[in-house]
Design a protein that fits this description.
The protein is mostly helical. It has six helices and no strands. It is globular, with a radius of gyration of 18 Å. The N and C termini lie far apart (39 Å). The relative contact order is 0.14.
């Protein structure tokens, strides 16, 4: 009896770590420039799919950034970076492969997104807020 109780307790402890990793993340809201009534139709689920399925080679994310800038020319670089992060966070909350939530994958996405938006690392003036692992 003690052994089976220990086994159940151990299984619950191990599964709680897995469940925590699978919990929804608290994604930031899109900036008003994307959601304002005169901004046109903004499709966050589509952007999330596009961003999440893009290869992390810079070119694919660069094309997405170019499209966002074309669709929303009044958006600042910071707003474009933020919407990329919001879209990726939204993608991670969908049924994504577990390795996409790894710290390595998220860091690689963040670097490539900033390279695509800022043509290099995010400037110090950009307010980075631990957007994913700070959840």
């Amino acid at each position: 009896m003690k052994r089976s109780l220990f086994t159940v307790a151990a299984a619950l402890c191990l599964s709680s770590a897995t469940l925590a990793a699978a919990q929804d993340l608290d994604c930031p809201e899109p900036a008003a420039v994307f959601t304002a009534a005169d901004a046109g139709a903004f499709d966050l689920p589509k952007l999330a799919r596009d961003v999440g399925s893009a290869e992390l080679d810079g070119d694919a994310l660069g094309k997405i950034v170019g499209q966002i800038r074309s669709d929303y020319p009044e958006a600042t670089d910071a707003e474009v970076a933020d919407i990329m992060i919001t879209a990726f966070c939204t993608y991670l909350n969908s049924d994504t492969p577990a390795d996409h939530r790894s710290e390595e994958h998220v860091s690689a996405f963040e670097q490539q997104a900033y390279d695509a938006v800022f043509n290099g690392p995010a400037p110090e003036s950009y307010p980075r807020q631990g957007w994913l692992y700070g959840n």
